[in-house]
Amino acid sequence: MTTVEKNRTTRTEAAEIMPFGGWESTPAGGEIGDQETLFRFPAPDDPAPSQTRVLTMAMCGAALGFSAVGVGVRALVTVWGGVPFWYVPTLVLFALLSVAFAVGAFLSVHRPVLPWLLLAGATCPMVIAALIALSYRT
Length: 138
Hints:
The protein has 138 residues and is mostly helical. 57% of the residues lie in helices and 3% in strands. It has two domains: 1-46, no CATH class; 49-135, no CATH class. It contains four helices and two strands; from the N terminus they run αββααα.
C-alpha cells in the first residue's frame, strides 16, 4: 500500500458508541457488532448513486428550501406586526427539524429507502411551520 492509498477496512472507536451504527467518513467492511452504519459521508471508492436519484433528491431539497423561504418571509411580515413569544421559537424549531431530516437524507444517499423516508419526514415539520405561519394573523 502506498501513502496515497488508504486502508478502507478500519473502523473508528467512535463508531462503536454512536447511535445508528455510528457516523463514518470512510466505508469499512462488515458491521460493528450487529449494527450497520446508516449515516456516513460517501468515500471516493463508493459507487456513485444514480443521477436520477440525486436529481430527485435535490429537487425535493430545493422544494423544501423554497417553502422555507416562503415561511420565513411570511413570518417576518407577521413579526413586524407583533407576535407572542412562542411564535418565532416554534417556527425555528420546526424549520431546524426539517433541515436535520434533509441532511440525514443526503448522508444516507446510498441506502435504498432511508433517504426517501427522511425527505418525507422533513416535509412534515415544514408543513407544520407553514400552517403556523399562514394561520397566525396579526
